[in-house]
Every structure is written in structure tokens, then in C-alpha cells.
Amino acid sequence: MEIINKNIDNGKSFDWGRASSDYAKYRDIYPEEFYNKLAGLSLGIKGQKVLDLGTGTGVLPRNMYKYGAEWTGADISENQVAYARKLSKEAGMDIEYIVSPAEDINYPANSFDVITACQCFMYFNISEVIPRIHLMLKPDGHFCVLYMAWLPEESDIARTSEEMVLKYNPSWTGGHMKRYQPGTPSWCGNLFEPANILAFECPVTFTRESWHGRIKACRGIGASSLSEEEIAAWEKEHMEYMQTLPEIFDILHYVTVLDLKKKELERIITYGNA
Predict the structure, then answer these.
(1) How far apart are CA 124 and CA 13, in angstroms?
(2) What is the pLDDT of residues 5-25, one digit of tens each?
(3) For 119, which DSSP code?
(4) Is residue 54 a contact partner of residue 119, using CB atoms and an 8 Å limit?
(5) How far apart are CA 209 and CA 231, in angstroms?
(6) What's the rounded mean pLDDT across residues 33-45?
(7) pTM of whole model > 0.85?
(8) What is the edge-to-edge ordering of all strands in the sheet holding 49-53?
């Protein structure tokens, strides 16, 4: 599914389905600490029904499956969902997946205890999605926005790889991540209130192959509208750079967790004339 958003990559089209093979192999990189923190916040645990929006290849449902929740994953890309189903089946996991943009998901009211959006919320039409999420959540349900990114100003490897992406795709706006302290977003309005807001750093270990694959599976290369020749040229240059690095290395990442609790709308009662 080709996506064009004027606020992302300067309006240049991208399609995560193009990167699905590398995404499935190289984007499952969140450390155990990441999942333990979610479970520690009682998100995605036994007895809950959870909907993961923008699920991609099902990274979050598959890694949280052991905590006991009943998961459903949704993604706009049919190819991504195909890989999610394949990987879940191979692991013996009973996870439901649907192909749908977040804006069109139409489960009944009070369907889920938790709804998650990991590494994808920036792609959604917030004004359409937030009321829909509020409706689908049960009373006291939680909506959790998750994000993890490398820090190029604190890693020569990450910075150099970013520069190579931008050399071939100068429209890419996915780089230059810096630390920031998340707060309560204005779009919460009268629908959500903060329950937990976390930010923490974590090193992620890569080999030369897995870091190369991780970068190729980003929006700037594998999911982009670059030609096969341009991607091949980037691969050649980036792999040459990989050969100058140790076989195993860490890249510092920064994680933010925005856990929001559903607020119940006040009922307005009007009385007619006596």
C-alpha cells in the first residue's frame, strides 16, 4: 500500500510492503527490557484483549505473546500482514491479523482492554484515529504509543549510516533523532489522560549484517520509491562501510512510552419543560 504524506519524507511516497522481507528478518530488535516494562505497566498481560495498530510483521504481538494477552494486529500493508501471519504460525502463536488502515478499523465499542501503536503513530490521521480508539477501548482501557530510535549524535555508526541513506534519498525525514521528554499531547483532549510516561535509553546489539539489514528495512531505503539500481548502489556502499567495523557492536537507542488511560465522556442530560 503506497502512502503519501506531505509531513513525511517531504511528500515522497513509500510502501512498507516493499521492505517486508527485510523488515521480518531485521526489525525484530526491541530488547527484553522493552517488553518487560510494558508488562510491568499491566499492558498486554493475561486476561486482556489487545489491538496493535500498524503491527507490521507482528513484532509487538509476537514478543508480548508470552505474557498471556489475546492479541489482534492490524496493518495497512497486505504484505506486512502476510509475514506477520507466517511468523506467528511458525512460532505456534494464535494471533489474529487484519489488513486495514488504522482510520478504518471498526470493532464494536468496548472491544479491547489495551490498544497499542508501536513505531507508527506518526503515520495516522490523528483526528480520525483517536475517537475511534476511544470508542473501541473498554472503560478504564489504555492506549499506548511506543517509539524507539537510534541516536545518531551519540553513535558514529548510526550517524554515518544516516548520511548514506540521505545521500541516496535526500527526502527522507526519519533521521536526526534526539532525546526528548514526552509529555501529554494536546490531542488527548477530553478523551485520554496520562497514566504513565516513560523515557529511557537502551543499547541494542547488532552484527554488521543485522545493522545493514536494519537500515535497509527503514523507510528511507527498503520502503522508499528508490529504483532497484539506486538501492543496489546504496547497498554496495553501505556494505563496504560495514567491513570497516567490528563484527559485533552496540547502537544506543532511546525509547519513549506514552501510556494513556481512557476518560469517560460526561453524559449531558437535558430536561424538557414541565
Answers:
(1) 15
(2) 999 999 999 999 999 999 999
(3) S
(4) yes
(5) 16
(6) 97
(7) yes
(8) 96-99, 70-75, 49-53, 112-118, 137-150, 248-262, 192-207
